[in-house]
């Protein structure tokens, strides 16, 4: 879209947002001449077909630019159209940012910072166990990653493993999940009193605790959580933890119904909200079936728990929702993308992170991009980072893949806009510019900009009127901001 106006008048999409924006969503002081567009209208791009790409974050893990193997080394081909210079730049407005640390409630931050004391109160360690904790954490880390094949079902029933999980993994997962849940649209967490929820593979109730911390508007609601796991000990610790957290926040805890059993175990009533975090990579590991088969099977099981659609009474809405979160690794992102497809076929719509309900362009197929989001751990509790270091597992980034879906009818977006969600690390391009892979309704985008975009940021631009050039290697449409 051609940039034309630098006359100080708000553009149509700025009027809509009620303010002038720069690319990170900050309100510009200037009348626009120094805002992106004005400056960029004069910019002479130095791009040429065949120019070299460099990776900015060599050592980082999790982002699409950090995948290494399929990373662009070059834009191949000499045809100009493969990476044509786009002279028309567009301005963008920020829609949301999934991983904004500022959205986490301050009382939740305090609980997370003090989590060692909270877990110490419900599940104390003697001095020998405390001294041995870093070794147990490292051992569990191998069990959960490179030695997965040897992991026994019910490993969480082993006291040392459960202890390492609750003192360490639960804490990190709460940091990840509270960051995410605090930033999901509030409509996604709209539930009436009496809503029945199910958390599959609940372990020490990580998801219910993270929801309680992140969504203060739900703390006083009467929710009933069925928490299902093959490890009853983990559930019991989790229930105590939820009660302790609720007491610290001066609230009553939610009702918890522990369900000892595997995914598929019947529960006594139909539910509205199903959550599953970090569980499918375990449930499916014994199966040699392909991921599309597993995705369909898991979705059928999830749907078997969810209540039939009720005609709306007294204007009451449809509160049926599903939230799936997995580690930010390609195989998990692939499974989630397939589960998203299966749920869409059953009438659900993605709420986040997808800015659309069209085909997933970051579906993790071999050689392709995979949907995951990462944030730096600078805001994580100091005591947790220290524990990571003592377990020789220093963590600079937290990464996750997820999909949130609703059965409710979703309002369609503005047809004049194209929204995209950034889902990669920055890729350093020549001419002090940077590229980012992003997901959009029209497919994968390579967003090229001089500005710093963040993993998880959703931006909106006027829908391109001209045909976009295509990056030959990735097949992404090239958008210049
Ligand atoms: C990595 S932990 C995740 C716990 C929690 N959801 C979290 O995010 O911290 C995986 C959990 O899934 C449970 N699990 C494994 N296979 C299961 C199955 N087939 N059905 C139910 N739970 C299962 C394990 O016992 C364990 O508590």
Q: What is the end-to-end distance?
A: 10 Å
- Give the biggest beta sheet: 8 strands, mixed
Class from secondary-structure proportions: alpha/beta
β-sheet strand percentage: 15-25%
Mean pLDDT across residues: 81
**CATH topology heading of the largest domain:** Rossmann fold
* Low-confidence segments: 1-63, 65-87
- Secondary-structure element string: HHEEHHHHEHEHEEHHEHEEHEEEEEEE
Please state the CA-atom Rg, rounded to the nearest Å. 23 Å
Helix content: 25-40%
**Number of beta strands:** 16
Determine and state the CATH class of the largest domain. Alpha Beta
- CATH architectural grouping of the largest domain: 3-Layer(aba) Sandwich
Whole-number count of domains: 3
Ligand names: S-adenosylmethionine
Mind telling me the CATH superfamily name of the largest domain?
Answer: Vaccinia Virus protein VP39
**Helical stretch count?**
12
Shape: globular
């Amino acid at each position: 879209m051609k940039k034309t106006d630098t006359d100080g008048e708000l553009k149509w999409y700025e009027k809509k947002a009620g303010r002038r924006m720069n690319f990170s969503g900050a309100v510009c002081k200037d009348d626009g001449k120094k805002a992106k567009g004005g400056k960029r209208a004069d910019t002479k791009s130095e791009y040429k077909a065949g120019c070299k790409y460099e990776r900015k974050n060599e050592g980082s893990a999790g982002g699409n630019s950090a995948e290494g193997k399929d990373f662009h080394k070059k834009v191949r081909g000499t045809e100009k159209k493969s990476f044509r210079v786009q002279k028309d730049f567009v301005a963008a407005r920020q829609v949301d940012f999934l991983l904004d640390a500022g959205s986490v409630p301050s009382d939740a931050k305090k609980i997370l910072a003090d989590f060692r004391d909270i877990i110490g109160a419900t599940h104390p360690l003697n001095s020998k166990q405390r001294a041995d904790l870093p070794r147990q954490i490292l051992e569990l880390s191998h069990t959960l990653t490179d030695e997965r094949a040897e992991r026994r079902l019910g490993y969480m029933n082993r006291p040392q493993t459960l202890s390492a999980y609750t003192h360490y993994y639960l804490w990190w997962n709460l940091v990840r999940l509270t960051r995410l849940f605090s930033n999901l649209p509030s409509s996604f967490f709209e539930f009436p009193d009496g809503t029945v929820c199910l958390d599959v593979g609940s372990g020490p109730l990580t998801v219910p605790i993270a929801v309680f911390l992140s969504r203060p508007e739900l703390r006083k609601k009467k929710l009933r959580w069925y928490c299902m796991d093959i490890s009853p000990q983990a559930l019991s610790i989790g229930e105590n933890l939820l009660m302790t957290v609720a007491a610290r926040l001066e609230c009553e805890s939610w009702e918890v119904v522990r369900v000892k059993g595997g995914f598929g175990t019947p529960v006594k009533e139909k539910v509205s909200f199903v959550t599953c975090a970090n569980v499918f990579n375990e449930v499916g590991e014994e199966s040699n079936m392909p991921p599309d088969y597993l995705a369909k099977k898991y979705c059928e099981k999830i749907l078997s728990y969810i209540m039939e659609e009720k005609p709306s009474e007294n204007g009451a809405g449809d509160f049926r929702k599903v939230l799936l979160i997995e580690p930010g690794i390609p195989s998990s992102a692939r499974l989630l993308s397939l589960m998203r497809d299966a749920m869409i076929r059953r009438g659900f719509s993605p709420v986040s992170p997808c800015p659309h309900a069209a085909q997933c362009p970051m579906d993790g197929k071999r050689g392709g991009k995979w949907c995951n989001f990462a944030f730096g751990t600078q805001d994580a509790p100091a005591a947790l980072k220290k524990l990571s270091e003592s377990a020789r597992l220093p963590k600079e980034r937290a990464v996750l893949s997820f999909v949130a879906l609703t059965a409710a009818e979703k309002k369609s977006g503005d047809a004049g806009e194209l929204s995209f969600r950034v889902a990669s690390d920055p890729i350093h391009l020549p001419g002090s510019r940077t590229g980012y892979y992003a997901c959009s309704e029209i497919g994968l985008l390579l967003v090229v900009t001089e500005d710093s975009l963040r993993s998880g940021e959703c931006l909106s631009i006027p829908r391109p009127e001209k045909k976009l050039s295509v990056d030959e290697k990735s097949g992404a449409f090239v958008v210049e901001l």
